[in-house]
Structure formats: structure tokens, C-alpha cells
Amino acid sequence: MSLYYVQKFLYQLNREPELQQRYRADRRAVLEPYELTDEEVEALVEPDIGLLFHLGVNGQILMHFAALHHIEWADYLQRMRDGVAEHGPVREGVYAMTGYEGTEAHAARLGHHAASSSAPMAPATPSGGATDQEGTT
Prior knowledge:
Helix content: 40-55%
Mean pLDDT: 82
Low-confidence stretches: 116-135
Distance between the termini: 53 Å
Order of helices and strands: HHHHHHHH
Number of strands: 0
Largest sheet: none
Number of helices: 8
Structural class: mainly alpha
């Protein structure tokens, strides 16, 4: 996969009106100079926002590409969610999904009450221990 080249193309497309004109005229031809897989070319030609997100395209770059295609914000966000549902977790890049299940699941594994719980958690001291009401361990 060539995430770098996909993002490079999108970055340039987002900033260069001449490249946008060429892309609108012939999407496949404008992609030829980039080292892209068939899957990446298809995602850029369609455009398939969900697949591009799954491949790891940065959301800041991807949202401008969606706007170029007149994709409304709520639809853009839904297409990203649909991409994860259809293709699986984001494969690489800053949005790569590592299996982290959120703060409540993390707290439960540590034996703490969930953040939404009414039971307060004891504050931690610099050494990591719980403190009593006077601040001593």
C-alpha cells in the first residue's frame, strides 16, 4: 500500500485548481504519475471516503476531498463509519485502530469505577498510591 502517495495526491488536489480541473476531466489519467495500488485508484476515482479512511488517509486531508465532491459533513462522517464497518479497522496512519475500547473499559480493567459512576475515585499521589482525606498515604 502507498498511503504516502494517496495523501500526497490529495494534498496537491486540495491546493491546486489546475489539478482539480484535470481530475474532474479524467480521474484515472491524473492518477497515473502516482505509485498507487488498484484499490487506491478505485477509491480515489469513485470517490470511496470509507475505503480511503480505512486505508489510513488523514481526516484533515480527506475532508477537503469530500468537499470537492460536494459531500455534506454528516454524510462524510457516516461514510467514514461505514468504511470501518465494511472494510475493517483503519490500517495505518494517525487514525490506525489499535483495539482501544475507551476510558470506561480501560478503567474497568484497572479495577476503577467507570467515569459515569457516582462513586468517586481516590486521587493519586505522585508515587501512585491513594491518599486519605488529609493527603497522606
